[in-house]
Structures are given as structure tokens and as C-alpha cells.
Amino acid sequence: MAQNKKQKQKQEDKVEKVVQATPTIPDSASSEPSSELENLKEQIDKLQKSNESLNDLLLQVADKKQLALYYQRNKEQIPPEVKLRVIDGKVVIGWRTVKDDVYKDPVSMKWVEKQIIEVIFEDGHTKQLAYLDFVRMYQHKKAKVVSTLTNSTDGKIALKVQTDDGKEYTLGVEYVN
Q1: d(CA 20, CA 25)
Q2: Which end of the chain offers a freer environment for a tag, N or C, measured as fewer CB atoms within 10 Å?
């Protein structure tokens, strides 16, 4: 009988150990995955908004020549919608630098900038402006890219675009955005 009691005691100890080793799942654990998912979703949304604002910033400050070269190398990545520059109600289809003198005045020790560009409008007329006036005066007008044209001799890309009012323009990729 003493042996029976010892065997029963051993079995009870084993059962007790198994019960103690079984983990208990708290009620709050079932709600944690959904809150974690919500936190991850919020983080992804924040990163996406950050990326969009950074992309907008980079497009605004981008060197237009370098952007044009990039589009020449990556033709499939031209955006479906671009922005044209407009001055006095006329669309600017191109510009060129006429004068670009930047130097430090030895007397006053100030930087002097004499920059003049010639702007070419949609109607063929041209106008010479100080670069700072040009930057200050132009406004943007959205246009959809209708087609992409590539010059076979030098590989430069031109875009055929259409504005909301139905007018179509053909201009080099460096003169958009």
C-alpha cells in the first residue's frame, strides 16, 4: 500500500508539472496583433506621405538639364502629366541663356549676378528677362503627355503635350516641370 501511495504521488506530481508548464494565453493577447497591424499601417502611411513630399521637393529643385538626361536614359519613366511654364498668359516652350556673369565685386565684396535669358513663347515671339524676374514671374499649367518624340540624330527627347483647354505643344523634356 505504501508503494501505491508513492506511485499515486509520482503521477500527481507529473500532472502538476504538466499543468504548470502549459502557458496561459491572456485575453489581451488576441487583440495585440490587430493593434500591431494598425501601428504598422500608420507607419507605412507616414513613410508614404514623407516619400511623396520628398519626391515633390526633388522635382521642384531638380536641375532641369540633368532631369532631361535622366529621362533620355529612362524613357519609360516619363510622367504622364507635366507642368508647363506660363508668363503673361503665354506658354513658354523654351529658353536660352544670353548673358551669365556671376562674380564677386572686389570693392564691395558682394556677389554680382548679371544673368539674362531669352524666353521663347508658344506664338514664336521672344522676350529677354533677367533670370530672377523669369523665376519670379512664371506660373505652372498642367498638361498631359500625348506622345514622346526622340530625335534620331542626337537622341534628345521632346514631348507632345495637351493642356486642359485642348491646345497641344511640342517642347523639349528639359522645359517641363
Answers
A1: 13
A2: N
